[in-house]
């Protein structure tokens, strides 16, 4: 391996541009893989085109015109019996007009876009041909991720040089028994320069064995990183707790219901973890309303009984407050002291909260991310419970670890109501053991979901007004096309004004992301206390607030939201014994994908099925909340496509850590040069 400066044609300017792409040396160049290929050797029928890709097409000129507009242009209609494409030219000269005559057969190459007339190409390369003009014999041309100022030919040239001079020195880091028989150098050669007869479909899908060889190596490196992080966290000792004899019994005896089988099973797994003196790292997933809070309460009993402190952290004030009220109701009768800490507390209240946490008279502390601020010190922190993990990054989770006693790490219990498909859990939370609460408590009525086109909005409004007048409570969720808080807020304000004007007798509230936290809080509180019958909101209400009386939910433009988000929103109703109802309003015409999504919502209430489908339809970033994962920083692997390799990658990562530790380090260096920072936070 050498620095990129060693290559011909790479001066300081080119090196600075390569740096933007995280390319510093020749190995980085070799692993800078094509995002696509151009195929100039196969004619593609016009009904098989995807926007944003380049194709070789052939067809007859069926129309030529000069559309009116600010810029003079020429539009040429090309037809191949399977479909049509419009060619647009803004620089019109004789050479082009001569070739684009009615009835001419043209062979063209260019990128497909969407224009005023459907699929269009701007200034494609074109030649006039006869029926039997032979096809060009060319290799597939690789198209690389690039940056402004760095052209494709330049990148190709640098990669070509790196392949010729340095690929022989690349170490094989996967032991041969775990590889699919492709050598690393061979795989890279193939991917950068596929032969003339290469299977284009395989390459486009990422399923060619040469690609799979690299994908697998990258997944193994990721799993090594997660396992290393876990081992590092678990080197530090944690307090060992015997299962609670008194508190847990008292807590469960004070409830009006029994724990479900799933709750008991997960509580047992947690109690088992807490007995060991290494930090528990467990993720509890439960569908909306599956009773995760009670499981967290029972887990807290084990630590509290041995006089250790417990901290529970939630992503929003309103959710933290809900937990505070729940835990106060449960634990104060047992003689325990519950403290509250939020970012809003100022002056005396804040100082008093910090004091009771510091001197240990607060047994259980509930709060928002104010808990990880430096000046918050715990007397004896034994267990940290984190709710709605996907709202917090890994760094934040680890920051709480440092709040333990000197030389001790608290146990970590992470909870989420966003069911995460197993494959995704393995790759995002591979450092955590996973438990699933897959049974709903009795007394819940299933939610009936219907899909209604937007043009029947009026009927829906009338029905809601009638139901609210009868004492029911409803949510009306406004979502917009653009992902913009400001626009969403405006849409919600407009809907609020409209409904208030039409139904003056109803008490209506409004919540959106642009409001201050305490304003939102106050409205939600009114809704909770049944002072409001209808709540107009943006998607800010998705996480966590229980209003058992609310039994109707309307979501406008539902096709715009992902399945998991729809499922979370829907879970805000159906909390009580009343029959609940969710109406998804959508706009015609629906895409295939939109139809499929709404069908799934109608047919199932099972969060895990929904999450699996969501992963198929939308990819992982969306599901986990992109903030935390980015695109999980994968270069070649794609989770939704390569999930079948994860189990194996996990196994191989364990074997390499055990038998080939040097290779493990080198794999991290190759694929995740940034990763080790997590391990030592």
From TrEMBL:
Keywords attached to this entry: ATP-binding, DNA damage, DNA recombination, DNA repair, DNA-binding, Helicase, Hydrolase, Isomerase, Nucleotide-binding
Keyword Nucleotide-binding belongs to the record: yes
PROSITE patterns cross-referenced by the UniProt entry: HELICASE_ATP_BIND_1 (PS51192), HELICASE_CTER (PS51194)
Pfam families: DEAD (PF00270), Helicase_C (PF00271), RecG_dom3_C (PF19833), RecG_wedge (PF17191)
Family statement: Belongs to the helicase family. RecG subfamily.
Catalytic function, reaction form: Couples ATP hydrolysis with the unwinding of duplex DNA by translocating in the 3'-5' direction; ATP + H2O = ADP + phosphate + H(+)
InterPro entries on file: ATP-dep_DNA_helicase_RecG, DEAD/DEAH_box_helicase_dom, Helicase_ATP-bd, Helicase_C-like, NA-bd_OB-fold, P-loop_NTPase, RecG/Mfd, RecG_dom3_C
GO molecular function, one term: ATP binding
Residue span, Helicase ATP-binding domain: 273-437
EC number: 5.6.2.4
GO biological process: DNA recombination; DNA repair
Stretches assigned to the Helicase C-terminal domain: 470-616
Name of the molecule in the record: ATP-dependent DNA helicase RecG
């Amino acid at each position: 391996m050498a620095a990129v400066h060693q290559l011909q044609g790479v001066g300081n300017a080119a090196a600075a541009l390569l740096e933007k792409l995280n390319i510093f040396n020749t190995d980085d160049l070799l692993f800078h893989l094509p995002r696509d290929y151009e195929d100039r050797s196969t004619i593609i029928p016009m009904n098989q085109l995807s926007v944003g890709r380049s194709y070789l097409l052939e067809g007859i000129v069926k129309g030529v015109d000069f559309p009116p507009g600010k810029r003079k242009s020429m539009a040429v209609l090309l037809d191949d019996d399977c479909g049509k494409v419009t060619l647009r030219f803004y620089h019109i000269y004789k050479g082009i007009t001569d070739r684009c005559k009615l009835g001419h057969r043209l062979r063209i190459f260019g990128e497909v876009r969407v224009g005023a007339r459907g699929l269009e190409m701007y200034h494609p390369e074109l030649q006039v041909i006869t029926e039997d003009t032979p096809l060009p014999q060319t290799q597939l041309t690789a198209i690389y991720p690039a940056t402004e100022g760095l052209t494709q030919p330049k990148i190709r040239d640098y990669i070509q040089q790196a392949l010729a001079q340095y690929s022989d020195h690349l170490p094989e880091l996967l032991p041969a028994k775990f590889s699919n028989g492709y050598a690393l150098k061979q795989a890279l050669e193939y991917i950068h320069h596929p032969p003339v007869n290469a299977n284009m479909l395989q390459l486009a899908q990422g399923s060619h064995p040469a690609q799979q060889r690299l994908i697998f190596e990258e997944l193994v490196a990721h799993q090594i990183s997660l396992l290393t992080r876990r081992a590092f966290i678990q080197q530090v000792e944690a307090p060992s707790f015997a299962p609670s004899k008194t508190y847990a019994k008292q807590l469960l005896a004070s409830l009006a219901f029994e724990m479900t089988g799933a709750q008991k099973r997960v509580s047992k797994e947690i109690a088992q973890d807490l007995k060991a003196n290494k930090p528990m790292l467990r993720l509890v997933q439960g569908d909306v309303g599956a009773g995760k809070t009670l499981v967290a309460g029972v887990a807290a009993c084990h630590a509290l009984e041995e006089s250790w402190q417990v901290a529970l952290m939630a992503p929003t004030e309103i959710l933290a407050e809900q937990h505070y009220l729940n835990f106060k109701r449960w634990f104060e009768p047992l003689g325990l002291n519950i403290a509250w800490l939020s970012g809003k507390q100022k002056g005396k209240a804040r100082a008093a909260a910090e004091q009771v946490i510091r001197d240990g008279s607060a047994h259980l502390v509930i709060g928002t991310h104010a808990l990880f601020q430096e000046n918050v010190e715990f007397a004896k922190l034994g267990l940290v419970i984190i709710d709605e993990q996907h709202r917090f990054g890994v760094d934040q989770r680890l920051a709480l670890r440092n709040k333990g006693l000197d030389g001790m790490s608290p146990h970590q219990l992470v909870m989420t109501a966003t069911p995460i498909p197993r494959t995704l859990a393995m790759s995002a939370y591979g450092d955590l053991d996973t438990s699933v609460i897959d049974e709903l408590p009795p007394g819940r009525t299933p939610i009936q979901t219907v899909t209604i086109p937007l043009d029947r909005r009026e009927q829906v409004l009338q029905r809601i007004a009638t139901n609210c007048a009868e004492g029911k409570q409803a949510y009306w969720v406004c979502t917009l096309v653009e992902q913009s808080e400001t626009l969403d807020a405006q849409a919600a304000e407009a809907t609020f004004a409209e409904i208030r004007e039409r139904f003056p007798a109803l008490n209506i509230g409004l919540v959106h992301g642009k409001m201050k936290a305490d304003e939102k809080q106050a409205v939600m509180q009114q809704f909770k206390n049944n002072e409001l019958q209808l709540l107009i909101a943006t998607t800010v209400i998705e996480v966590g607030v229980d209003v058992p009386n609310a039994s109707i939910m309307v979501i406008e433009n539902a096709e715009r939201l992902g399945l998991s988000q729809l499922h979370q929103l829907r879970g805000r109703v159906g909390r009580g014994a009343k029959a609940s109802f969710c109406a998804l309003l959508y706009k015609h015409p629906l895409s295939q994908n939109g139809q499929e999504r709404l069908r799934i919502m109608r047919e199932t209430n099972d969060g895990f099925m929904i999450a699996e489908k969501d992963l198929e339809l939308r990819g992982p970033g969306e599901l986990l909340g992109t903030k935390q994962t980015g695109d999980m920083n994968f270069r070649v692997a794609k989770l939704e496509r390569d999930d079948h390799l994860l189990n194996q990658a996990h196994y191989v990562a364990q074997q390499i850590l055990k038998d080939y530790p040097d290779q493990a380090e080198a794999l991290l260096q190759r694929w995740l040069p940034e990763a080790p920072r997590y391990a030592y936070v």
